[in-house]
């Protein structure tokens, strides 16, 4: 039996720092701690927990819920390591034979992630009828041939978001032939667009090993600190998934970092609709909160050179950060894109280093107070001019993200946000919340639970409203079964995409429901 | 503006062709990516496709136009087999008793600008440097032979199961009706071979050199570095209407098409302006203060503000940064007969077509 919610521990493992915060049931921040990210995930988490515990005025065993955001899965893909060898099974022949699976994958990633690929007959029409019958014997032959190398299986069938029948049949075949091997089914992972869904499914399958390490690393760290809590990972829409879900859908943790920052910014200011400007050491991400959630990008998302149809926060990123280097360039000034990164506290002028940075410029302009201001006295670079350039870039980037005319409310977070001016062009107000530098960990700690559907519906006599109701009910139920409070679940997003050139009315509906964790 | 013609298409040229197709599509025809990947896979196996000029086709040889018919969303899910071109070729050859010596894209936009390369390679046929629309359009009678009273018959429709259906229709509008309904039965998309013509006949209607034009546009954008719009303008005269961002997009299905509109709010030097684009798969008119500022058959495309790649109507989203641009439509469509088929009135807009060059200044 899970205990009623008491304290929550939010942890964000970033590229440079690992942050931990503790919030209480009224979502008050009780403690925060920052420590450098370690190579070994478990050690870093342990240090962050031990650190936050040392500044927390309550026993750690009052922590009932733990939320972790990590870039571990992203890094595994980018570096092509720790990936499970996945059998890539597509069901769709004689359709789809013109484009074999993984055709445009970077060859190293393909070698690291694939145990072989096959296209077997089957798949569904948009109507839900089979294109041709599923040929299980062809799948059996392929699996037997590659049995020695297969560590996981990814199954993608044509139009599985309409009918998953052949994917489910194939899953059974896999277990009959290979026994207990992890299987990812594409209809549970992605939406329409065969190749992108297949890619996402294969990435997911190959990440199962990484997910196991993250989960055991987290569990070990919790145990070492005497924490007996329900644990979650945050996903790319800023909501939570339970650890059993993480083991099945590890790919959904990719992109959770920016989502956490934005949700945290919204929480710290109690704003639900605003621009969030997250300034780090090297870059600035500008995103948009709509109804309290990050607005998603419509562009295809490329992960490690692989195109997927994931929804990710829509971000505008520019090379402006606290560590961004400033150099004299002839008569002009060059601002970035290079950054001193985490060496800010040794390399920048105010800390006695030799690299002029935007943080130095901010100290000079009295926006920020760090290091020794006197050390700026004899610098030759035009710090004021550099700050003006940075301000201008930020203003343009903000304008590009604005969705309505008139000035927007802007929330500034991130360790580098001290370089921002007190007022920004195009912003009616710039909010600089307290605890701005741990907004991401706070975003993890206060994350809600969501459920979503993305399905193609044939109207067949039903009204559009009836179909939409079915979709929203499904989304709501999924959120509740993932742990959301049934009384507080709301539909946060609904989108209808009609399909061209079909005389019979068919619509695709995407619906997402989200709500706070159930407190009982 | 260079006038060299491509003689073969390998992987690099195909990638450029696909980008060129997004620009020339006028928002229609679907994302060319699936067509591009089919074509790349085919040339990886069989080598580059050879591209010939229409003058290289003998008077008595037969050529046809090819493309997929149906919903782009379905094409991206139930991807083609790749051998459909050969089935169409065999079916037409058996029926006509003449030698088919080449095929061409039926339109120069979206998936169909690139996908016929895969079919040509797999069938061992060269690709004619030309097409029947010079852009993308939603219906099958909106092909230039229709203006010359050249029938589409016999046309062939093939599905991924290699079922081939021949259409001998009383006219090209009937072809559109019958084929559209058949496609629906076959699952929402299928592959078509249309308007088989002898070399002698094809020299009238075919819009020539469009494959090369699309490749050149794509290449110019790819090699342009930081200023893709200038490069684009050097290959195809661009008339930019407004630079801004999409602040509203609305879509609904009617009569088997996606209809809707997008509103672009000006930024930078266009700050304060609002332009609305209305579409039926393709962008049909652009309006400012209720007045048309561009219409079909001129090509109206939303170009990505940073990359200058075209954005298809299904991908228009709130917040996108775009340059709404117009290119001169093909000359044949600007004639009186052409405007009857694809002018603003053919799409239900009671406005006169006025060529873009009479309304606006080009980039330079």
TrEMBL record, chain B:
Entries under Pfam families matching the protein: S-Me-THD_C (PF20906), S-Me-THD_N (PF06032)
Gene3D superfamilies documented for this protein: CV3147-like, CV3147-like domain
UniProt superkingdom: Bacteria
Domain S-Me-THD-like C-terminal: 172-356
Annotated S-Me-THD N-terminal domain residues: 13-168
SUPFAM superfamilies (UniProt xref): CV3147-like
InterPro entries (alphabetical): S-Me-THD-like_C, S-Me-THD_C_sf, S-Me-THD_N, S-Me-THD_N_sf
Identification of the protein by name: DUF917 domain-containing protein
Organism: Haloechinothrix aidingensis
Taxonomic classification: Bacteria, Bacillati, Actinomycetota, Actinomycetes, Pseudonocardiales
